[in-house]
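Risk register update: the risk of archive-format incompatibility is retired. Evidence:
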Amino acid sequence: MMTSGTRRDRAGRLGIVEYEALAAYAAKAVWPAGFTIYQRGATADGVFVVLRGRIVLRSRVKAGRGFVPGLAGPGETFGGEGLAPGACYATDARAEEESETLHLSGTRFRAFAREQPQHALAVVGQVMHEHALLLEKLRELATLSVEQRLVATLTRLAQHHGFADPGGRVSLDASQYRLLCEMVGATRESVSIVVNRLIADGLAERQGAGFVIASLPELTGRIGLGWRDGEVPMPVGIETGGASSAPIARN
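Archived output:
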C-alpha cells in the first residue's frame, strides 16, 4: 500500500492523497501471483492504479517468448488505453506477485474528473509520464546497443521494489533474468554475452542462475561515457536465437 504523505513521491508516482480520492470512485481488487488481469485485444475500459505488488505488461510473440514494454508498481498506472473510446488493450497484463489495484472505469473516471478535477489531472499526468517512458524506450530500441539497453533496463528495475537491496545492489534470480531479457528486447544469448562482460570487468557476479550488480552507479555511468558502443541507428527486427530466447532488436 502507498504510504507516502506527499501528493506525489520523488519518482513522480501517485501518492496517498490521490489514493484516498480515488477510493470513493474505483473498484479495488487483489490479484494472486501469476494471474492474467487482461489480454491483448480485449476491450479496454478506464485505467488501473497499482497500490502494491508489480504488474508486468507483456506483448506475446510466440509460445514462451515475449517483449515487456513496462512494469507498473505502487503509485503507477496501467491499462490507460481504456481512457480512449472504443479502445482495446495493447498488451497482456499479469500480476508478477500478489498485487492490489484500483480500477477506474471510463464512466467513473468522467465522474471523478467532474468532481475531483485536481486529482483527476494528477492521474492523467501519471498516465502521460508513463507514455513518455514508453517513447524513451522506443528510442533506446532504435538507437542503443544491447549492452546499453541492458544498463538502462537495470537502472529502471532498481527503482522497483524487490530488485535492489538497501545497499544499492541489484539482484536478479532466474525468473527475473528472463524478465530482464524481455525488457531489454534481446535474446537470452545476447544478454548473457553482455552479462559475462560485466562479470569479467568486476561489475557483476554470478548468483545461481541469476546475477548481482554490485555497483549500479558505476554501471549506469557507462551509457553517458559511450562505453564500448556509441549511439547509432539500429533497425528493429527479430533477433535469431534459441527457443528460450526473448525477441526484438538486433545487436
